[in-house]
Amino acid sequence: MYNEKKKGFLTKKVFFRFLFQFVIFLLLPVIFALNLFLTSAQLAKQSCIDSSLISLRHVRDEFDNYINALDQIATQLMFEPKLNKVATIRKPQYGSRQVYYIQEFGEELKAKMSPSAQVDTNFVLLLKNASAAYYRDNVVFDLEFYYDKFLNYHDYTYQEWLDIVFGNSHPFFIPESRVLYEGVNISAMTYVFPIVTGYGGKEGFAFYNKKHED
Question: Membrane-spanning regions, if any (predicted)?
Answer without folding.
Answer: 14-38
